[in-house]
Amino acid sequence: MTTITVNADIAYPVEVGHGVIQQLSNFLGDSDRVAIIHPENLAATGEALRVSLTNVRAITIQIPDAESAKTGEVLQFCWDALGAEGFTRNDTVVSLGGGATTDLAGFVAASWLRGVRLIHVPTTLLAMVDAAIGGKTGINTAAGKNLVGAFYSPHAVLCDVDFLTTQSSADYIGGLAEIIKAGFIRDPKILELIESDPVGAQSPYWSHTQEIIGRAIQVKPDVVGVDLKETLGTNVGREILNYGHTFAHAIERCERYEWRHGNAVAVGMVFVAELAHLDGWMSRDLVDRHRRILKSVGLPTSYTTGEWDDLLAAMRMDKKARGDQLRFVILRDVATPAILTGPDTALLFAAYREIVNP
Questions:
Q1: Which domain covers residue 96, as residue numbers?
Q2: Partner of 105 for a Cys bridge, out of 37, 84, 142, 170, CB 3.0 to 4.6 A?
């Protein structure tokens, strides 16, 4: 088992290993009640977890699968369930599921009584290395993804790698995008491991699976601890975690959230690499390395179905924008990030053309 400590507004452990879900009761403190928020497809797992918690009153709250859970209506449903059970600040919300579940459950915990104990039990690769770590919570609106939410740190994150063997191959590979992102922005060893065996990397049974998960998770406390709420302005802080995400979120919105997040991030990283190259920041060799490593594990590197005007409009809704200016996390080199502010629209379109016709 690997333990990683995140020092944000509170210090909390991230446990990575086989069977770590069995430690859940150790992190409940003096809670009298526990609410396990889980998607429909994990109903049996949620019920088994509820039954295992014998020293507290535990309930399950079932929500829709995937992004359909992240709505105001579902948020209200969860609030009503907590109210019916008389949840107090002494009690605990547990998320059990993928990134959509951790996003929603985190916001439930952050907003109920202005904050109750939160424990994440991510069950997908993407959630383990991204959504469950770092304290971002939220829901979607008609205007865009994750536009309503809060920064709220969990008390613990339990990443039980046994869950990964139940994921579909496509979902697992989608999660690799965030691990590769962590390699590009902070930890080159991740890239070297995947490049050494891209076929093996596509399986949760790979000998380096736990290592690359741990390394990707470690990137978050390295930056979140000094910039929890993305307040460093023109300096490069927590925003580096959004590498590739501006264009990725635009794809997701244009595709009505039917694209896997990791697939969108993969394309988004190639887009911003092309943008950085066109603006003189990044070498062509590094752009090509982006394409090569992403393709080698089965991730997409092109996008042809969206209309440019729609994508540009969606990017302008991005949370990193300041006024009328778009902001992009770019790389000068591996692990050398920078911020590109207000690039010319013609430059953005040129990068888009490289995505459409690679």
A1: 2-166
A2: 37
Amino acid, res. 263: N
Residues facing residue 322 across a β-bridge = 325
Which residue out of 50, 136, 181, 277 is catalytically annotated?
Answer: 136
Which residue among 181, 186, 249, 320 is the active-site one? Answer: 249
Active-site option among 242, 252, 290, 320: 242
- Per the structure, the count of domains in the chain is 2
Active site residue 295: no
Query: Per the residue annotation, which of 40, 47, 195, 230 is the catalytic one?
Result: 230
Active site annotation includes 41: no
Residue 128 shares a structural domain with residue 200: no
Residues 162 and 257 in one domain: no
Q: How far is CA 302 from CA 268, 274, 285, in A?
A: 9, 12, 18
What integer pLDDT is reported at residue 48 of this predicted model?
A: 96
pLDDT in tens, 299-345: 999 999 989 999 999 999 875 665 578 999 999 999 999 999 999 99
220 included as an active-site residue? yes
Please indicate, yes or no, whether residues 160 and 254 belong to a single structural domain of this protein: no
pTM of the model: 0.90
Q: Write the pLDDT tens digit of every residue in 39-67.
A: 999 999 999 999 999 999 999 999 999 88
The answer to whether 155 is a known catalytic residue is no
Q: Identify the pLDDT of residue 227.
A: 47
Q: List the CATH number of the domain containing 126.
A: 3.40.50.1970
In the numeric block, the tokens 């440019």 are attached to: 308
Low-confidence ranges of the chain (pLDDT < 70): 224-237, 319-323, 358
Q: Is 140 annotated in the active site? A: no
HSE, side-chain direction, 13 A CA sphere, residue 34: 28
The verdict on whether 292 is a catalytic residue reads: no
What distance in Å separates the CA atoms of residue 116 and residue 292, rounded to the nearest whole number?
Answer: 44
Asked if 118 and 174 sit in the same domain, the reply is no
* Mode of pairing for the β-strands spanning 156-160 and 117-122: parallel
Active site residue 245: yes
Tell whether 144 and 202 lie within a shared domain. Answer: no
